[in-house]
Amino acid sequence: MTSVWGIHNDALTTELIEGNFISIGWDEVGDISKIGPDRTALKAALAGAYPEAKRGSIPVQAGILRRFAFDIQVGDVVVAPYRPDRTINIGIATGPYQFLAGAPSHRHHRPVEWKRLGVPRPVFTQAALYEIGSAMTVFGIRNHPAEFLAVLRAEGDPEAAVNAAVQNTPPAEAEEAVDEPRVKRVNQYTRDFILEQLKAPNLTHQEFEEFTAVLLRSLGYQARVTPFSQDGGVDVVAHRDPLGVEPPLIKVQCKHHTGTISSPEVSQLEGTRAAGELAVFVTLGNYSKDAKSIERQKQGLRLLDGEAVVDLFLSGYAALPTEWRLRIPLTPLLVVNDGADD
């Protein structure tokens, strides 16, 4: 039976995709295959390699090493949250554990064939996102594997595949959490909650346009929605001066979905720009490589994905109208720092 595994890697970024692998640290332990899967032996190796480590952390780390080197099997599915753009990559383990002694860091490797790259987080349910927010480096996904398998196998809309998987999967009994709600996990949970509230059916497309205008106003712009269905691809216009007569005019196009925006859609917005005007594309999903290439080539064009929308929402939250703060309620909170045990 195929298992689904989650893995976090904050040390490496594009190397994982370009090299088709996953990796973990603990380099000083050496080749795990020579130690074997015995937990006692793994704990002894960790204690010897890291004598200053807290005793309580050693068993947890030993479990991570065992899972990575021995429990993950060829053909198993790997779910890897991707830190640079906060999307999710999904692949299949294609080979056994390897120890690359010559690598500068993260010498413990597993080869992976990446099947789905850059999947927006809003595609998945909040419960599934919370599960892969585990503070552990390597962990089994046992409560919501069907969602990630559905995206892996989807030929069309990944969100539709997830919705179908959720409807066809009986509720699972949640396992007891093995990690604590530290800063990173609480922060990511909040960001996922915001995106979830902005998705359909929570908002219509017209409401998303209104939200975009409100968001721009909270950041100090004057903004208004253009007449619906008569916008010619421009949904919101914004400017800095109160009268809206001083340049530059900012033309905004909104796409209220979590899919991938292609280059033709970006080119359509770019085609509406007159000399001296700026353009912004806003979506809850992400953009194709070709679309991002247009942004790099065109001065005055900005592409905002779901994560960028959340960044702007959080930075301007205090200035939002009461209606929107009630619709997406947040409150300041003091949370245990991630480095509290260091």
Automatic annotation (TrEMBL):
One of its GO terms (molecular function) is endonuclease activity. Keywords: Endonuclease, Hydrolase, Nuclease. Pfam families: Mrr_cat. Transmembrane segments: none annotated. Its EC number is 3.1.21.-. The keyword Nuclease applies. SUPFAM superfamilies: Restriction endonuclease-like (SSF52980). It is an enzyme of class 3 (hydrolase). InterPro entries: Restrct_endonuc-II-like, Restrct_endonuc_IV_Mrr, tRNA_endonuc-like_dom_sf, Type_IV_Methyl-Rstrct_Enzyme. Residues 202-312 form the Restriction endonuclease type IV Mrr domain. The keyword Hydrolase applies. This is Restriction endonuclease. It comes from Jatrophihabitans lederbergiae. The lineage of its organism: Bacteria, Bacillati, Actinomycetota, Actinomycetes, Jatrophihabitantales.
